[in-house]
Amino acid sequence: MFSKIFLSKEKLNKNIKFMKKITPGKICAMIKANAYGHGLREILPLLACEIDYFGVSNEEEALLAREITDKTIIVFGMCDDYKLCMEREISFAVFSLEHVKQIVKLAKKTHLYPKMHLCVNSGMNRYGLQTMREYLKIIEYLKTNNITLEGLYTHFSSLTTDRNYTKKQREIFATYINKLPKYWNTIIHIGGGKAIFEDLRADVYRMGIELYGYEVEGVEPILTVESQIVSLQNVNKGEHVGYLCGFSACKDMVVATIPLGYADGFPRQISNQYYVFINGKKARSCGNICMDTFMVDVSDIHCQLGDKVCLMQDAHQLAKLINSTEYEVLTNLNKFRGDRIVVD
């Protein structure tokens, strides 16, 4: 393949060591969405050497992860087949009394034991319990059926933007923790970005993008996207480049074609704005980004067919251009049609 994603094992290990050093509890590494676009099959074996808990969004991701590791895997979304999850020793979230009852009835029918993590909606308003009354009913129901909760958790929505709202969420969650039967030894875990910096105490801290090198000072991006020049075109002044005459040459120029496009996760909206690096020099995209290719101006760069092109070393530049976050940029790479290679 002309295009590749390189994943630095050395940088990932440094990020893990740094985050473990400053985290007051254990880490649950979020590997949902194909490890945030990095590649679950490539990343999980590296993480599993150092991390004890893993978080995914659905049972499909969980089953893939289970092929690679025997450590705790928690599904934080809804599942289609809870029986299969119990058979594979996969933990999963539950969100209401009715949900818990369904799982317990299935567990008794199949003689399996459910590893449930109860979600408390402390203010995210996405999933979870909202009343103490329902929570106490769940506890009594589980006691009656001789089942415990493996985990109790919440998700903070605005840790970096609204301290007052975070304080409110924290206080709500604390009331639920205080009502837990002590002998259950239930794991308390939290997430929502930078929880470790807010003196929010828990047994386990869910983190994702920090491990991959973003949002925390002291970590480095582990992912690099590279390709190569597959065509060089001489474009005369007044001619156009790409679909819909998206770029007009104001001088004679040389244009290089890169075999990646919006089908690979590089959105069309960055056309004529994005920069890549060729032989250590910046080359600006010209013309509308195509499904499979985009073009860059190499008029002032000495280059030839086959020369390496660095498209991304830090997702921040692209996130800024599309007025979004590194999360979206990285997960867009799930469409990437090249190889993912672990280096170092």
Question: Could you walk me through the main structural features you see in this protein, from its secondary elements to its overall organization?
Answer:
This protein has 344 residues and is α/β, with parallel strands linked by helices. The protein folds into two domains: 8-207, TIM Barrel; 223-313, Lyase, Ornithine Decarboxylase, Chain A, domain 1 (Beta Barrel). 28% of the residues lie in helices and 24% in strands. The chain contains ten helices and 19 strands. The protein has helices spanning 9-22, 32-36, 40-47, 59-66, 82-87, 97-110, 132-144, 163-178, 316-321, 326-332, and strands spanning 4-8, 26-30, 53-56, 72-75, 91-94, 116-120, 151-155, 187-191, 204-207, 223-228, 231-235, 240-241, 247-248, 253-258, 275-278, 281-284, 294-297, 308-312, 339-343. The chain has an eight-stranded parallel β-barrel. Strands 16-15-18-10-1-19 form a six-stranded mixed beta sheet. The radius of gyration is 24 Å and the shape is elongated. It starts with a strand and ends with a strand.
